[in-house]
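Case study 2.
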Amino acid sequence: MDQEKSLTLRASAWLPSHAAQLARAVICDPMMTVESLRLDVAAGRSQLFDLIETETGEVLGCIVLRVEQRELGAEGVIDAAAGSLPFARSRFPALIRALESKFYGVKFYRVHSARRSVIRSFLRLGYAPRGMVLARAAA
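Prediction:
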């Protein structure tokens, strides 16, 4: 997947280390919690993957994926990603293509992110905005 290091995506059961990593990923969305991600993985609604540096076996991060059924077909959703993920421009495209390959029979891929650099990287890969989600806490 990369000339510098080979990366492997491995399906994983939920571990306490995943909660610690993903806490930072969900901080921008007050309606998503680490516990909701854990429950979705436990119920089979989402799947958790570890991103592993193949040669050393070091776990670099984790990613939560799910398939959402919509009226016009299935959509693959990257719900959350965290850890020491290789988001450098040179590694990002290969990582996203590997994630996309985990979805079967979907018509679209969707990702949620509040990080501008990540959004720009997805735009370079052909992702397009569908709109913008704005939120404010109710009084």
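The CA atoms of residues 9 and 99 lie 8 Å apart.
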